[in-house]
Every structure is written in structure tokens, then in C-alpha cells.
Amino acid sequence: MDTEQMIFDIIANAGDARDLTYQALDKVEEGHIDEANELIQRAQEVMDVAHNVQSKLIQQELQGESVTGGLLMIHAQDHLMTAIAEHQMIKRMIPIFKKMLN
What we know:
By secondary structure, this protein is mainly alpha-helical. Helices cover about 85% and strands about 0% of the residues. The chain contains 3 helices and no strands. The protein has helices spanning about 5-30, 35-60, 70-100. Helix 1 packs antiparallel against helix 2, helix 1 runs parallel beside helix 3 and helix 2 (about 35-60) packs antiparallel against helix 3. The termini are far apart.
């Protein structure tokens, strides 16, 4: 797989992870905690795919291979970092809301 495709994979998977994370938050708002937890887990799995692709690119660069990407790579990193941060925050909020609902 070429670098550009790998970068697009990061962007797509990070975006999917963010979407699943916000779907989980919607489920919390509806009072469906179990469904929210399932969506958070699915988001983690999708985010792991993006992170693994990112790790491969980093490893390639560390091995002396030229990894180009410019602004596109920065954009991908931004998407992944945002997805990770939002996922972590919402994941921590779910148990709080669960206590409030009980």
C-alpha cells in the first residue's frame, strides 16, 4: 500500500471512530448505556486500525524509508489525535452518566 493510501486510511478510520464515539454519546443521552458501551468498544477497534497504520508509517521512517505526506499527513494526524481525545473523554463520561441515571 502506498503512503498516500495509508494516510487516507488513517483519516477514514479516525473519522469512523469519532462518528461511533458520538453515536455512543447519543445513546447515553437516550439512557441506553449498554449500547453506548458497545459503540465505544467498536470505536476503539476502528481507532486501533488507524493507529496501527500510523505506527507502520512511523516505523518506515525510523528505518530510513522516505515517508512523504506533507499537509495530508498533518491532516491525518490531526484527525487521529482528535478522535483519540474525544473517545477518551466520552468513554470516561459514560460511567458518570450511568450513575446519574440509576
